[in-house]
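Hi Y.,

Following your request, here is the sequence exactly as I used it, all 554 residues.
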Amino acid sequence: MRAARPCISKAAAAVNVLLLGGYGVFGARLAKLLVVDGHDVCIAGRSLRAAQTCAADLGCRAIQMDRSQNLGALTAHDVVIDAAGPFHTYGDDPYRLARAAIAAGVHYLDLADDAGFCAGIAALDTDARAAGVCVLSGLSSVPALSSAAVRALAGGEVPSVIDTAILPGNRAPRGLSVMQSILSQAGRPMPLWRGNQWERGFGWSSPADYTLPGGLVREGWQIAVPDQRLFPAHFGAETVRFCAGLELGVMRYGLALFAGLRRLWPFAVTRPLVQVFKGLAGALSPFGSGRGGMSVTVTTPRAHRSWSLIAEDGDGPYIPAIPARALLRRSSLPIGAGPALEAITLAEAEAAMSDLAVTTKREEVPTTFMLERVLGPKFKDLPDLLKAIHQTVGVSRWQGRCVVLRGSGLWPRLLCAVFRFPPAQPDVAVAVTKTVTPHGETWERQFGQHRFKSHLSVKSGKLLEAFWPFSFVIGLQLRGGALHYPVTAGRIGPIPLPRWLLPTSEAREFVSGEVFHFDVVLLAPITKGLMVRYSGNLIAKERGDPLSPPDDLL
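Below is the corresponding structure, written out as tokens. Let me know if you'd prefer a different format.
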């Protein structure tokens, strides 16, 4: 096997780096960092004039090069880095540059943000090892920096939930490749790993708030990056989420409208259309700020840990270049091909951004569960199985069998229709999905093909359950090792319900024979006749295959 080429720290001898796309938004910043570190950098791209202009500013070399044409220039360098993209448009031979680098005995790195491209490069592993070279895809904010943060935050535990967001400032420059990548995803289906199984999501949907150092709150929207495809298997996580943000509300919600249109009418995102969006973004560039950030959170049953950064003075666009800078400060590179999962450590990344206007912060708080906030110390007295079903960290799924009885008469039937309770069935499959939200948990029950859900939260130490527009106070009790859920008060909207209009709940959960059981009896208000009764058992649903999203979700 060929010995690895030397790749040095800042104080060692220079490495010859060929940087494709080195005059782009991220490529130019990576070029500057590598020049500062003492590397011999050659900026390459289709436009020789643009490459020469950028190289003249940095004091490095420039050549004209197209990845689809002659790649003979590779042999004069130790490392080639592809910072061009968009990687999802590389056509029928997406790894042509990587394979040519392997053939030339040159290390290959890229800043890919496309999940399929990043995961697929592992097919070159055998050839890369035989040539003794390093081939890494995604050596950027994701998955290289995000995976480094996850490993540091996990603390030796298996993460239950991994949640990452990248939130640039509005005055940060936008490259056409990044804009095309995001616009191409907007409104289109994407695979999501939630609660140990794959689900269908859509690009630029499901917004959430993220807090950056200094208390800055930004909104992020769901898009596809390599993390969602790679983290479930690599880290064993139950749920993986990634969001990206735009600082200005008019841009966030304008893109949401665009995504909605593409869900109804999946038209192609062409280069001219991207140019239109770039022009609109340019018109709004004087507004907002140059402050951007990144957030990575890892939640386990023990703790909620986060690492975040905020970049000031327009230094945010340097962050995607940090992993490559950090890696090339090492004395040698790992041999083989694959996605850049944990290719660097978080300590190496933080050292590589120490000369930037970047502030990082780590926080940790204990994980608390919804029923624990109601029961207090008594929560620990629950039987282990009963406790486990109420220790949802992100999304948990349960399945079993159930018997459903319904009351007779117009009044019970009307109430069951209002609350969408299931029809009577002597034996039916039941599935329960619990999802943690910023305000509590959503419980979705499925009886055969029939679904209904409620939202549970804690207010002033009391458990509330809402079936919009109704909400009820549950006087949760632990008696004889069983949980009881009596209704003690209720409202319709803001209006309190008198006691005679409250339903009677004789619901309980208990463990018998090492099996979790539920028995829910609801009596109609006024008449106190049976509305519905459903009783059965649940077990945890088996984990799906984290390596293989269903084809219809890709």
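The chain has 15 helices and 30 strands.

Thanks again,
Q.
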